[in-house]
Amino acid sequence: MGEIRLNYYSETCPNAEEIVKEQVINLYNKHGNTAVSWIRTLFHDCMVKSCDASLLLESINGIQSEKTSTRNIGMRNFKYINTIKDALEKACPMTVSCADIVALSARDGVVLLGGQRIEMKTGRKDSKESHLAEIDASLPNHNDSMMYVLSRFQSVGIDVEGTVALLGAHSVGRVHCLNIVDRLYPTVDPTIDPTYAEYLKGRCPHPDPDPTAVEYARNDRDTPMILDNMYYKNIMDNKGLLTVDQELISNPITSPYVEKMAADNDYFHQQFSKALLTLSENNPLSDKGEVRTDCRYVNAD
């Protein structure tokens, strides 16, 4: 286990967290959707073995990038992590890890989307290898059974309540049509509200969407850039986008938490913050890791 703690960079790079925050705000003002990307990046990195920035590695020198996995289709804005990294390298060369950038940018992104500020530890190191082969067994898929999804989250220390809260991240952003069409074609899933199904078919008019095309639908059309409990209200009205969203309300283990979060936005935020913090601390690297100078590549020996 890596030694992570609050204010890890207080002596080596005192302004590190402020630099990340400043860059995250700048990027948000230029490209609003980056704030959503930072939350997704944390999830897709930390669920697979460790919060170690392995997701950011490109395919080169025997490394096969995790970005090539079908589970990571639609992931965006990786290039802007380099923008944050460049600012940190200018201030404090070879000091702040890419893994910490992933964690801190998610923390600051949550605030921009209306969530609570999370006191997050730092001191993670970066992986020297990709975990592509482990993704399918680690990252729950959009159409997995709820029991399997719960077991995957439990493996990283997140309970049922926390899992329901983390899926509330679907309150913001959008989903590629590839992950929706199985509920629309050849026949519409009867659990989808008919008017919502019409909206989805308008957004995703083909049963075989192009994975490279920007074809998507929003889970929450009312407040698509605010992290809030509209997600839970929607799935209670059969307006869940993914199979996993609908299963949250149909499964008797998770449905009581859905109802509670739909009724109480503050409770949702508390549980979301708690679960995201737990996820951010999954299996941090220490002696086996490094601080990459470029988040896309391991350091040259």
Automatic annotation (TrEMBL):
Domain Plant heme peroxidase family profile: 3-299
Organism, as annotated: Mikania micrantha (bitter vine)
Location within or outside the cell: Secreted
Cofactor: heme b; Ca(2+)
Gene3D superfamilies noted in UniProt: 1.10.520.10, Peroxidase, domain 2
Chief subcellular location: secreted
Residues noted as binding Ca(2+) 1 in the record, renumbered to the chain: 45, 48, 52, 54, 66
GO molecular function: heme binding; lactoperoxidase activity; metal ion binding
Domain of life: Eukaryota
Catalytic activity: 2 a phenolic donor + H2O2 = 2 a phenolic radical donor + 2 H2O
Keyword terms, alphabetized: Biological rhythms, Calcium, Disulfide bond, Glycoprotein, Heme, Hydrogen peroxide, Iron, Metal-binding, Oxidoreductase, Peroxidase, Secreted, Signal
Disulphide bonds in the chain: 13-92, 46-51, 98-295, 177-204
Descriptive protein name: Peroxidase
Binding site for substrate: 140
Binding site residues for heme b: 170
Record family assignment: Belongs to the peroxidase family. Classical plant (class III) peroxidase subfamily.
